[in-house]
Specification:
mainly beta, Hemopexin, globular
């Protein structure tokens, strides 16, 4: 089993910026575009409890497993079997906890004990269409409609993303985030990452090592 270098990530409200977590610390960085190395740190390292004071004295203070945003400012965060809903407005200083932490099954009853997501997830990323978010738990991925809060389908990663077969991502992800071009995502597993196009279902460039291409993370990995 590989040790994650990136345990969670999500895009900032500022274009080409993202939050990247390794356990209880994170940095905000400029992920740019294309094949440029990620060298520019906007902020951090910061402890989660300092940057997100609503998570102090909660399970989220020691790490985040995954998150996704809706079409507004609301972001859902996951840690173990817990979920929290946050009005995420970091640039105004007005971020606030709207709900939770509560169990995932209380927040989203369709993610019940009959699904692999009731006890937690490893990563989440928005689809490029509709209100669908992909939830990853081990080798399983679910298509979840965050507006109706219905789990539409659960498949193996190899069925949902056949391009991942034979790669570091075939049996699970550690983290993922959508870029500000929602057709594209970055995915992370162990020491590797990739840039992926959701429309063409193709990797953009090659699968590469995080430590080589993301030097901005050197203070947390």
């Amino acid at each position: 089993m590989t040790t994650p270098l990136v345990t969670a990530a999500f895009r900032s409200s500022q274009r080409n910026q993202c939050y990247v977590f390794n356990n209880e610390k994170y940095v905000v960085l400029d992920y740019g575009r294309g094949f440029d190395k990620k060298t520019r740190v906007i902020g951090g390292p910061i402890h989660i409890a300092d940057g997100f004071p609503m998570f102090a004295n909660t399970p989220f203070a020691i790490g985040i497993d995954g998150s996704f945003d809706n079409d507004g400012n609301d972001t859902f965060f996951f840690k173990g079997d817990q979920c929290a809903k946050v009005d995420f407005a970091p640039d105004t200083g007005d971020s606030r906890l709207l709900m939770g932490p509560i169990s995932i099954t209380s927040m989203f009853p369709d993610l019940n004990a009959n699904t692999p997501f009731a006890t937690g997830l490893n990563a989440a990323m928005r689809s490029n269409t509709g209100k669908i978010v992909f939830l990853f738990s081990g080798p399983q991925v679910g298509s979840f409609d965050y507006e109706t809060r219905r789990l539409e389908q659960t498949r193996s990663i190899s069925d949902a993303f056949p391009q991942f077969v034979g790669t570091a991502f075939e049996f699970g992800l550690d983290a993922a985030f959508n870029t500000h071009d929602r057709n594209e995502v970055y995915i992370f597993k162990g020491e590797y990452y990739a840039h992926f196009n959701l429309v063409t279902s193709e990797f953009i460039g090659f699968i590469r090592k995080i430590r080589t291409d993301w030097p901005a993370l050197k203070r947390i990995i």
